Fold:
Amino acid sequence: MKDTLSAIHSLMHTINRPVRLMEVCGTHTVAIFRHGIRGLLPDGITLLSGPGCPVCVTSAGDIDAVIALAEKPDVIVTTFGDMMRVPGKTRSLSGARADGADIRIVYSPLDALKLAAENPSRMVVFFGTGFETTSPSVAATVGEAVRNGVENFLVYSVHKLVPPAMAALLSSGEVQVDGFILPGHVSAIIGSAPYEFLARDFGKASVITGFEAHDILEGIRMILAQIASGKPAVKIGYTRVVRPEGNPKAVAVLNEYFEPEEAWWRGIGPIPGSGLKLRAKYEKFDASARLGLAPVRFEEPSACRCGDVLRGMKIPGECPLFGKSCTPEHPVGPCMVSSEGSCAAYFKYSV
Amino acid sequence: MCLAVPSRIVELDGMKAVVDVRGARREVSLLILPEEVSLGDYVIVHAGFAINTVNRDDALEALRFFDKVLQSGGEGVFL
Structure:
């Protein structure tokens, strides 16, 4: 690690200007704090969090829609545990459960399918959240529902795609970064090719990075080397887990059941082609289509700066609510809810 | 959400396996794993699915990071 750090210092000397890097993935945001990475880096490097916390970018309208489903007497909603406390317009899933809605936490989408098989008289809706790391598993679960003839298993998909969101952020011109620390486990699925536009179209450096301290430092060193040489190109630092081609089987399963659509990102708004919906062939598993429910879109509380934080335009401390009316105990915005949200991570490690 | 746990395969049954992580056993699906696996192999598990294989040394190293996460009271990271 010492060699990597001295290489980082020497590269910064060569670059001779401040460098801004965005870690796209919420797991990296937490790992960077946990390892104390900022304290090891030269002053000229700024690390910014990006939009890669699935809990944070799930819109309040979608939370409300899922609550409305859970309040139907013949519906059981299943979700990953970390969605429970995310505020909708008036309530979270946790609050709705306290009010009597049947909402259950599952570890795997297959647990939701099993629940559906055990409760044939009720509809079991799985709240499909997460990026490319998670969505192939949900696709495979729909495949199992088809194979086993389970007709009462439905998915409310708010799955999101990382590369289209990055493209949208860069195209907007609002995000000023020199390079990207790319997600490790999203990339284990999609490989490196979907990120090639970063260098080709935007001239940005990028490295797929693991989660250990030495992984992150090595990722930063590799990004700086690209910046110093003026030759940006997507590289893989996390070779233990990520292959250039990713996991082709997972991608094939994903593409069999889902297709891209516009997705609504909390605090950011709609991004074309950045979400996933079930293909028409599998519409009977689509909770929105089958139960006739559409999310209501509305603006976030005006003072909450979560959207700016997710776009790397503000750090959490620049939000007027941070640490005052918004804390992990009483979160106002989603960046404070998830343990991987930037605001929660800043609060836990800096306050 | 996107932290995935390296796990050792201790039982195999078609597209299902039982994995061991630090003594805890759990059933995982092999439906989206791109290659065949054998008993004793390590896989990366996310939300009940093995998403990739990983060699033994790398898995053990990743587990050390995972232990640190647990010690510091990480929540929700299993997803």
